[in-house]
Amino acid sequence: MDKINRLHMLPLTLPSFDYKTKQVLNKAYILDPVRKKYVLLTPEEWVRQHMLHYLIHHCGYPKGLCCLEKRIYGGKRYYRPDIICCDTLGTAKMVVECKAPYITLTNATLGQMMQYNRQLAVMHLVVTNGINHFCWQWEAASRQFQAISYIPTYDACRPTH
Predict the structure, then answer these.
(1) φ and ψ at 123, to 5 degrees?
(2) E-assigned strands of the chain?
(3) SS3 breakdown of the chain: % helix, strand, coil, rounded to 5?
(4) Which pTM was predicted?
(5) Over the stretch 95-132, which tens digit does the pLDDT of each residue have?
(6) Cα separations (Å) of 141 from 2, 93, 115?
């Protein structure tokens, strides 16, 4: 069984979709519709592409307002959040961290998200391993994030003015 087939068999709880892959020198690549190029197909990328598809086709996020692995500066180092979803003004509204399906999501993962948020000040934080998905929403009144049981749609993240 080749590498592409093994990776595609990883069971995720995100909707499946039509994707394009290719193999070059024994390495598998998947077409990323946002970056508009083939990227190395790792287990984490498999989750990232499924989550991206879910956000665009099920939650209504415009493809052009999603950034993947955009480098942000956080004090003494750079970070690369997996997915940043912005509004039409270019303001980051949600950051998504994707882990491989075999990675257990822990408080350390949430800590990583909080590092991103120090620079981005988003309304929503999402972490997923393709099987389990956790989301937090910023509550201005309490000035803290509260866990929510759903991933918000684009309309819920749009500016109100």
Answers:
(1) -85, -30
(2) 21-24, 27-32, 37-40, 66-68, 72-74, 77-79, 83-86, 92-98, 124-128, 133-139, 144-148
(3) 25, 30, 40
(4) 0.88
(5) 999 999 999 998 888 888 888 888 888 999 999 999 99
(6) 52, 18, 22
- Interatomic CA distance for residues 8 and 28, integer angstroms: 11
DSSP calls for 87-113: -TTS-EEEEEEE--TTSPP-HHHHHHH
Torsions phi, psi for 119 (to 5 deg)? -95, -30
Query: Two tokens at 73?
Result: 């500066």
Give the separation between CA 115 and CA 26, rounded to whole angstroms. Answer: 36
Output the CA–CA distances (angstroms, integers) from residue 18 to 7, 35, 138, 157, 161, in the order listed: 15, 17, 34, 27, 36
pLDDT at 2 over 60: no
- Give the span between the Cα atoms of 7 and 151, in whole angstroms: 25
Termini Cα distance of the chain? 53
